[in-house]
Amino acid sequence: MSALTISLNFPQSVAGLHPVWKRPLDVCLTLFGLSAIWPVLLVVAMAVRLSSPGPVFFVQTRIGRDGKPFGMIKFRSMYADAEARRADLLAQSDREGVCFKSRNDPRITPVGRILRRLSLDELPQIFNVLRGDMSLVGPRPALPEEVRAYPTRAVGRLAVLPGITGLWQVSGRAEIGFDEMVEMDLAYAADGRLTTDLALLFRTFRAVLTGRGAY
């Protein structure tokens, strides 16, 4: 497998589950949200630009539905050399399993810590939703190297579009271990109900306010 071609075999229970209502809901809610939050986007962009040298946006290759890579957009919350320093910090992960998470990651800027605490760094992903790379609700998109290390069961989480928010995000985010996250994502992938997406979107507001697991 390479970063550009990841071959996947999905569990039969989740393969090909793409509800017809999902794309229209994503587009309508995203366009409405963009019209409401564009001043926030401008303020955050200015804060990032003035906080440390580097670009306002950070585009990182992630793996989407069916193993297809795409460029996920975020406000930059780390110093410009963060990617080069990642390998040196893997042993300091505060989270069990494949995905790296560190509470005291030295690569995060002071402004970036605030953005992450409030999940504001994720806002530009609404453009990924408009492009069809992501959905508002779904499993968080993984890095190529993380997908290469997936156990067989975890592959099923890639059978649906990745999301900005989802069951893992509203249940504790980084406090949830990898194996438990996989089970949550598989349950979501096999669900396919509009009411589930609406409930998770509603719960997202509470999760953002509490900041649980956001680092």
Average of per-residue pLDDT values: 85
Number of helices in the DSSP assignment:
8
Shape descriptor: globular
Oligomeric state of shown chains: single chain
Q: What characterizes the major β-sheet?
A: 2 strands, antiparallel
The tally of domains stands at 1
H/E element order: HEEHHHEHEHHH
| Category from helices, strands and their pairing | mainly alpha
Low-confidence stretches: 1-5
Task: Estimate percent helicity.
Answer: 40-55%
Strand order of the largest sheet: 1-2
Beta-strand percentage range = 5-15%
Number of separate strands: 4
Q: For the terminal residues, how far apart are their CA atoms?
A: 30 Å
Q: Rg from C-alpha positions?
A: 17 Å
Detailed description of the structure:
With 215 residues, this protein is mainly alpha-helical. The chain has eight helices and four strands. The chain has a two-stranded antiparallel sheet. A two-stranded parallel sheet has the order 3-4. Helix 1 packs antiparallel against helix 3 and helix 1 packs antiparallel against helix 4. The longest helix has 30 residues. The radius of gyration is 17 Å and the shape is globular. The two termini are 30 Å apart.
